[in-house]
Amino acid sequence: MVASRAAGRERPHAAHPDTSAEGLKSLRKAIRVLECFSLQTPRLPLTDIARTVGLPLSTTHRILTTLRTVGMVEQEGDRDLYRLGLKLLELGSMVLANMEVHREALPCIEELVRETGETVHLGVFDGSQVVSIEKMDSPHGLASNITIGKGAPAYCTGVGKALLAHQPNSTVEHVCRLGLAKHTRQTITDPERLRRELAQVRAQGYAVDNMEHQPDVRCVAVPIRDHSGRVVASLSVSGPATRIPKDRIPTLAVRVREVAAKLSARLGYAGR
User: Fold this and answer.
1) What is the model's pTM?
2) What DSSP character marks residue 186?
3) Which stretch of 6-20, 42-56, 71-85, 185-199 has the lowest confidence by average pLDDT?
4) First and final C-alpha spacing in the chain
């Protein structure tokens, strides 16, 4: 009788790993559903979401219903269209508010905009692209297609090259394998030429986007380091080529490096 009761008490513990595994599978499925949405596809019908994640309609609908309950997904009235919910905006705002580099960078960004009169970006690397986490536009205007939270190519933007130059070789090769698409006539599309460009970035301490991502737009960017010396972000100044001619780049690079050094020091970096 005692043995029988002991066995009965153990059954819930034996089932626990399976329950946990199922919970992780459900979580992964929910994340895949959320990742279906993008700036290009902000609204999606159930059928498209199910096809993208490779799940049955019933399973996908159940996941969307759960996400809608907690505010991470919204449904447009009675229409079969879903979009990301305001709860994600709230969580994203908390991430930015608690991201040390973002918090410390704001005075530096304002300083650069005030001194240069050009647009300033703060970017981080997500493993394949650069993501803008802060931006302040030039008072003179610049039609920049890099927006906060949106990924941009790392190989042909100033903020991206300043970050990519300090990544492991395996990461650079991964970016090359993804393809170096041509955005303008100036875009570097040859992997070997990109490697040489990144070596130059490391040597001179700053990167230049010479009208490689957008026609007639130049950018000068410098890496930001944390207390350990690791490159965690990059700071850039962008403007029309008419306002940033080639002979202005060295002077601009010196000032961006000075401000970037100040920001790195705020993050605890004690090196040069």
Assistant:
1) 0.68
2) T
3) 6-20
4) 74
